[in-house]
Amino acid sequence: MLNLKEREEVIKYSKKLNTTNLSPLRSGNISVRGIQDDVEGFFITPSGKKYETLKPEDIVFLSINEEKNFLSWFNSGKNPSSEWRFHQDIYKNKWQAKAIVHAHSPNATAVSTHRKTIPPFHYMIALAGGEDIKCSDYATFGTHELSANIVKALENRKACLMSNHGQVAFGENLSKAFELAQEVENICQQYIIALKMGEPKILSFKEMQKILEKVKNYKSG
Ligand SMILES: [Zn+2]
């Protein structure tokens, strides 16, 4: 089978969605960038299948260019996740994105219903790439509007919340994207607890710039 490695990786992390703190049942989806038959695209979880039953042939390859998508998924006989569009638009707009994890993880989803950007109440916010974690404006799932809102919230970031929906994170591989999504979930849990005691103290912009510099050096070192 073509691109067996990528397909198996998507399956491995889809199952992890269910067994970690990220997404119970069938919620959430995963993709990894790749090339098939000289077409640049991505491998994504299919629609409506339980992750524990996934086989390599169930993973759908979609082109980065929309018009080729129809051909490729009719050929494969499978439907991609109904949320494929924002995966495509993130890959189109972010060359750094090699893999994407989208989850309806409980704490991130809870914060997203307040449509709130998470301020730097903890320095680990920097792992998402900036001095806060944005929450994209609300739009119906699967729409171009939602994609556009997510891409905007991901400006200079690797993760964001999605209003009344959940979170999305990308990385240079699936392992890193998955770990970042788990970090975002932890941060949201801590934020909810902190808010129970009133508004937490926020780190200054200057302090966050210092931390962002340290995080950058740590990663490249
Ligand atoms: Zn979703």
Structure overview:
By secondary structure, the protein is of the alpha+beta class. Helix content is 42%, strand content 16%. The protein is built from seven helices and seven strands. The protein has helices at 4-19, 66-76, 84-93, 106-112, 144-153, 174-196, 205-220; strands spanning 29-36, 39-44, 60-63, 99-103, 135-136, 159-162, 166-171. Strands 3-2-1-4-7-6-5 form a seven-stranded mixed β-sheet, with helices on both faces. The N and C termini lie far apart (37 Å).
Oligomer: single chain
Distance between the termini: 37 Å
**Residue runs with pLDDT of under 50 for 5 or more positions:** none
Write down how many β-strands occur, each being a DSSP E stretch of 2 or more residues. Answer: 7
Largest β-sheet summary: 7 strands, mixed
Ions and ligands: zinc ion
- Total helices: the number is 7
- What radius of gyration results from the CA coordinates? 17 Å
Mean pLDDT: 91
Topology order in helix (H) and strand (E) letters: HEEEHHEHEHEEHH
The neighbouring-strand order within the major sheet is 3-2-1-4-7-6-5
In helices, the fraction of residues equals 40-55%
Q: What share of the residues does DSSP label as strand, in percent? A: 15-25%
Structural class based on helices, strands and sheet pairing: alpha+beta
Overall geometric form: globular
